[in-house]
Amino acid sequence: MRDNTTPINVNVDYAPVNRMAYDITIILDNQPGQLATMGEVLGEAGINIEGMCGFLVEGKGEIHILVRNGSAARKALEKAGFDARNVRPVLVRDLENKPGTLGDAARRLADAGVNLTLLYLAADNHLVLGVDPGTDNWDKAKEAI
Questions:
Q1: What b-and-e string marks burial along 92-122, b requiring 16 or more CB atoms within 10 Å of the CB?
Q2: 78 and 102: one domain?
Q3: Does any domain span residue 35?
Q4: What is the pTM of this model?
Q5: Residue 45 has pLDDT above 60, yes or no
Q6: CB neighbours of 45 closer than 8 A, spacing ≥ 6?
Q7: Does a structural domain hold residue 2?
Q8: Beta strand spans in the chain (E)
Q9: Is 116 within the bounds of a domain?
Q10: Are 56 and 8 in contact (CB under 8 A)?
Q11: Is 4 among the domain residues?
Q12: What is d(CA 20, CA 130) in angstroms, rounded to the nearest whole number?
């Protein structure tokens, strides 16, 4: 185990504390073409998907996308008839691509008392963290990593 006083390699230039990124949950019908159409709609609206994960929940596709402009993405998706929900600010941090980096970051968050509500890895090893911005978890998470 690493000494928690040693800094981890976290590049905050990608998403400085004052820059927001947003996670949006989109519910898709579980049928061919839904993901393609969602991607086309966002592309036509000029929205870049910086990260994404998805899984099947009770027969529906639940997709999380990472975007810089949450309101514009939601508007485009809803205009096209998609069920876009839970647009929420997230912390995005660049992690060094080597064994143990996630453990180091997660330990720092745990030691700060931060309870995560969302976690996934986006493009270029960007760690996406969802915490409740209405609590001190938001500030603790920003300070911890």
A1: bbbbeeeeebbebbbbbbeebebeeebebeb
A2: no
A3: yes
A4: 0.78
A5: yes
A6: 72, 73, 75, 76
A7: no
A8: 10-11, 21-29, 51-57, 60-67, 83-95, 118-122, 126-130
A9: yes
A10: no
A11: no
A12: 12
29: which strand partners? 60
Residue 76 has pLDDT above 70, yes or no: yes
Query: What is the distance between the alpha carbons of residues 57 and 85, in angstroms, rounded to a whole number?
Result: 15
Vertex 86 angle, CA 140 and 55, to 5°: 100
Range of the domain at 69: 22-89
Average pLDDT over residues 85-90: 90
Structure tokens at 54: 């998805």
What tokens does 56 get? Answer: 């099947």
Cα 142 to Cα 71, 88, 106, 136: the distances in Å are 23, 16, 12, 10
Residue type, 50: E
- How many residues are present in the chain? 145
Looking at the fold, whether 52 and 62 belong to one and the same domain comes out as yes
pLDDT tier at 20, thresholds 50, 70, 90? low
Same-domain status, 104 and 72: no
Which two three-digit tokens encode residue 67? 């975007």
